[in-house]
Known about the structure:
Elements: H1 16-31, E1 38-39, E2 48-49, E3 59-67, H2 71-78, H3 84-97, E4 102-112, H4 117-134, E5 137-145, E6 155-166, E7 181-186, H5 195-205, H6 222-226, H7 234-243, E8 246-251, H8 256-260, E9 269-275, H9 282-290, H10 295-301, E10 306-312, H11 317-326, E11 331-339, E12 347-351
Amino acid sequence: MKKSDALTYRRAGVNVDEGLELVRRIKRGAKETYRKEVIGGLGGFGGLFSARFKGLKNPVLVSSADGVGTKLIVAFMAGAHSTVGIDLVAMNVNDILTCGAEPLFFLDYVATGRLDAKKASSVIKGVVKGCKQAGSALIGGETAEMPGIYKPGEYDLAGFCVGVVEKSRIIDGKSIKAGDALIGLASSGLHSNGFSLARKVLFEKLGLNVKSKPRGLGGKSLGSVLLTPTRIYVKPMLGVIKKFRVKGIAHITGGGFVDNIPRVFPKDVKAVISGGSWPVPKIFRLIKDGGPVKEAEMLRTFNCGIGMVMAVKKKDAAPVVKELEKYGEKAFVIGTAVKRGRGEPVVEFTGEAVF
Length: 355
């Protein structure tokens, strides 16, 4: 048998050297995210993190796993990979934040058919940026090269986050009662949900592409608007939690208002949300009108301009909004908690239409 006929892992489609090059590229950036609890660094079989939580008497670990969904298809279409890593971090840290938890460390998983170290490192740089925003250490991850599963140029992402909260300070929504105020934090756009419907309307129904600049988007390309990264609310929300009693927090992701708010509300209380109490970004109106998509479907699919909802005492509403604004967040009192009768929905919209 000739030497040239011998099969190798590389000839089968897996380039181990490209994987090593990726690790080399991301090590420095990952180190910039380290907290003092990190032990060791990237490159081992497991990430090490000290479990000595200073100032916590009864620490409870909170974990989350999530991905970016079909937003990745827009990234492929645009050839832009520097922000989806931020989305990956955001979807996880915002979830554990609803319990009042501070993110501690993060791990990522990148799967592709053929590894491109340059493209993958661009993705991971986004993860590093997101971890910095969240104060979370990137202590490990996995890159899987799987020829035959993914189309050329495509990849998938998953993220895993662990945080901690003092047991007595866990936010679970149980104390929400009638009369409490609901505060909404502005989203940066679609975040990472509803992209299958958005793509159906924008690219198939309207015939637009990522370079299109439809009216109402301020001269921005559709691709840049859709790829605007998910807001990471960790630092402003933790700041508020330290100063005020936050009774419940809902991360408005897939399922919109209708499916996410009930996850934190007691059975005898409902959320009455005032239409017109916050500005709806133009991208949502473009999707609604372009479908057309009914308002009820929009509110159950997208965040419609509100990325997170929190319940606080009525007297704290204005001070909490002011505190959030100090962190550069746009926040609005969007409704109130009301006693819920048997058979009534947990989420109701009142006043003018949202759109």
